[in-house]
Amino acid sequence: MPLASAFWHGLFQAVSAFNNAGFSTFSDSVMSYNLDALILLPLAAAVIVGSLGFPVLQDLLSCGRNRRDWTLHTNITVAGTITLLALGFLTILIAESSNIGTLGPMNWGERALNAFFHSAMPRTAGFNSLDIGALRDETVLFHYALMFIGGGSAGTAGGIKITTVAVLFVILIYQVRGRGEPELMGHVLSYRLASQAVTVIILGLSVIFFASFYLSVRTPHALSDILFGCISAFATVGLSRGITGQLPVDAELVLVALMFLGRVGTITAATWLAMGAVGRGTPGRADGRDPIIR
After folding, report:
1. pTM for this prediction
2. What residue ranges do the domains of the chain occupy?
3. Which residue has the higher pLDDT, 173 or 254?
4. What are the Cα distances from residue 214, in Å, to 99, 203, 209?
């Protein structure tokens, strides 16, 4: 490309990636660049940084690598992000390496590059370097989870957020083991915080269920494709398995409503977990309180 055109396309992709928008100036997203690490890795990095959330970025800039000075929220978000990226990378690499429609024709370096890229994209970024419609069922199933969880709180990512899932997961472990008050990294989680996390997850699953049911009645598409589109809309991901353009107007409006509820609803619910007291324990700040921001 000429320099001016290349700069414009690069700037658009960069802004879209950092804001987890997923819009691309190319008709095939970035599938034409699926063998180019100099394109995919910067986009993935921008997506990950944007999805961490601004409180986490501020913490990392002020405290650096000293995890002892990080807030509980930052510790959860960073650990959760690394875990989800690793699980997504391994799942996609293993499941798609023999798929002729996705990673099959590539060498192992190219497979690893695209597997890593696609482990970051379902976190509400929306770019794709592989054909989403050609993904295997097990990969699609894992995409459901990655899209629904999303990224960090108070950032550019959608989904129900890593902190919500972390709180619920810790409480579940403590309930199964029959222990007392649930603790996370030396902090006692309040039951009010737990009830808020459960509420957010149940509301999210409920709206996705009813939207998927409506689309399955109104359209002839496979349930897996419909569910993928509904979760993608709720988490403001932007990925699709190719059915969005074939939907009737009322079904499209349902997806629009899902996007609105998924984004505005989670922002509204953010005040719940932001104001929830983490409880006693090792303080992450001098005032002894370390709220988990959703």
Report:
1. 0.85
2. 3-275
3. 254
4. 32, 17, 9
Residue 290, C-beta contacts closer than 8 angstroms, at least 6 positions apart: 71, 72, 73, 187, 278, 283, 284
Question: Token pair of 218, please?
Answer: 């109104």
What does the H/E/C string look like for 249-273?
HHHHHHHHHHHHHHHHHHHHHHHHH
In this structure, of 87-96, 134-143, 238-247, 262-271, the range with the lowest mean pLDDT score is 262-271
d(CA 2, CA 134): 33
Distances (CA, A) of 86 to 36, 94, 180: 21, 12, 31
Q: Which residues of 122-148 are buried (b: 16+ CB within 10 A; e: fewer)?
A: bbbbbbbbbebebbeeebbebbbebbb
* Residues 148 and 204: beta-carbon distance below 8 Å: yes
